[in-house]
Write the structure tokens for this entry.
Amino acid sequence: MNATSNLVGEALKEVRGDETQLHFGFDFGVGREAISKYENGRAKVPADISKSIVDKYDDPKFALAVQHQYTGTGPIWLNGPNVDLHRCSVREKTIEELEEAIVSIKKTSLSKPKEAINPYEKKNMMDMIEEAVEAATALANFIAVTTEHLGISYTGVWTSHYQYLQKAGFIK
């Protein structure tokens, strides 16, 4: 089991709070045993139930955990011992990560065809990608922490964003 293997279960327990597994499961058409398996990492929360939980509870931590569960990629909720999730700390760390990513992107050329890239240039490109991934993770946590702090709907922010993208012709 890796370090991120049961983030969904941990987030689900938080979402459920003091509600019993049995009562919580009723809302989503599953039994207590299924909820227990989800929380303990013995089973993945099915996509339709994950979506229903996100819709009902609008919990950014659960949403990020589910995204990671299904793809094994993307930003993840930061929960380690060296993380300070106070909104001001998250803001400062996000700015730091974005600035590092911008510097790295600006200093890296992407003009050569893949076959012409030497090992040194490839290493710089990998460093740039790593900086961009760190910035994406910082931004995801910033959005989650800030929406939660302000009482703004996390799913509502994304719904508005997708509507904008569609209206601007960036998605169908």
Remarks:
- The mean pLDDT is 94.
- Residues 87-167 form one domain.
- The chain has two domains: 7-71, 87-167.
- The radius of gyration is 19 Å.
